[in-house]
């Protein structure tokens, strides 16, 4: 079917000029703050020790062992110091990279920390079957923390940190609450393996399949065999155990990372225990990326919670966030007392029948597209809505949510909501996205029927962001059924009809500073 993607000329400048005036203040020509000014990030101590290392097999409660390196502070002759130091379980993952992790963590050993580096069961020299984040791996992690605390060279204060896989295990460690775990630093960590990675909005993701094939091939069958959110996934979930967490968490992640949503979910579950550092980073440690925070924050965190050093600072505010943008000049690091910021407000924009996106509702109507046969046709199979050029900068601080009033001619359907920044020259930069399978509209525990021809009001929440749209740019939202490889192109054939205009579909955007729409 023919797709109408005309862009409206509803005078958004007239409706938002008063709303947005002042948002551009301090941006044109401003120099970004590339380094946080908080003393938390500049904390430091001189190195006092050398690094000693011992390879050993650490016993688990079932008699199995994990292959580990124990790196301890040493004297000038590289002999371990006969004192007790706090221990950090460092990047507990399946990648068998203990030598590189030793290099990465040497800074902490030199300042008085034991570092415990271990391959998870079924990886490296740790025998067994690899089941990422499964019950056995979680039990092993618990045992590892408690084993470390009982060693004569360790105090009873144990921390855990890691990135990606190691960030996930750090969060699960906190959720399982071993008695001697005192604090964690999860970097790029999940809240729920099912919804963050495997089934996004109930739709299987292809992004993770390459990782499965190379790292955990035994998961390929089970992941496909459990499309619903059942006990298999609950057993691997942090969210299902949020109530157990009682240790401080320093959530570190990037606004370009695939786990920025769970970063803020984990914060929201325990805002009294959590501090967030969100930078302009892609997946991986901040080191070497733009606006890297260095080593001070990590040392300050461990000095505070493991050494119980009262002189070690915590962040002055709960949220340290780097404002990103499609423009080369950004405001850089900002501090907020909460997330979303207290001063933010919600701006609701109607998806117009004429393709506009505006606080002014247009006449009611519909727009439609045909589900593509495969992902190569996805860009053309969409309905697209756009504002006119913005009269001033708009800063998005949170998770935009689309309310899509949709009718499917098939017995189910996928929705991908993609939010873009469109520059005056037509360049499109994706800001964020979210997905939902229609039969999972009320959750993924059990599907609900989709009756062809019946309209459903579907809420699609996108990943959070801290993004500045410059004046003169346009905010665009795409509604479509495919977003490969983030989701698999498995939507059944048919048409999707989206109700538009007054009383129809809309996009609600959290913006900073506060706005009152007239």
TrEMBL record:
Pfam families according to UniProt: Peptidase_S15 (PF02129), PepX_C (PF08530)
Keyword Hydrolase on entry: yes
Sorted UniProt keywords: Hydrolase
Tagged with keyword Electron transport: no
UniProt-listed SUPFAM superfamilies: alpha/beta-Hydrolases (SSF53474), Galactose-binding domain-like (SSF49785)
Domain Xaa-Pro dipeptidyl-peptidase C-terminal: 299-508
Gene3D superfamilies: alpha/beta hydrolase (3.40.50.1820), Galactose-binding domain-like (2.60.120.260)
Signal peptide span: none
Molecular function per GO: hydrolase activity
PANTHER family assigned: COCE_NOND FAMILY, PUTATIVE (AFU_ORTHOLOGUE AFUA_7G00600)-RELATED, PEPTIDASE S9 PROLYL OLIGOPEPTIDASE
Matches recorded under NCBIfam families: CocE_NonD
Protein name: CocE/NonD family hydrolase
